[in-house]
Amino acid sequence: MKVMIDICIVPVGVGTSVSKYVAKCQDIFKEAKLSYAMHSYGTNVEGEWDEVMAAVKKCHEEIHEMGAPRITSSMRLGTRTDRNQTMQDKIDSVREVLGES
Amino acid sequence: MKVMIDICIVPVGVGTSVSKYVAKCQDIFKEAKLSYAMHSYGTNVEGEWDEVMAAVKKCHEEIHEMGAPRITSSMRLGTRTDRNQTMQDKIDSVREVLGES
Amino acid sequence: MKVMIDICIVPVGVGTSVSKYVAKCQDIFKEAKLSYAMHSYGTNVEGEWDEVMAAVKKCHEEIHEMGAPRITSSMRLGTRTDRNQTMQDKIDSVREVLGES
Amino acid sequence: MKVMIDICIVPVGVGTSVSKYVAKCQDIFKEAKLSYAMHSYGTNVEGEWDEVMAAVKKCHEEIHEMGAPRITSSMRLGTRTDRNQTMQDKIDSVREVLGES
Question: Residue B72: which of A72, A73, A76 has the nearest Cβ?
Answer without folding.
Answer: A76
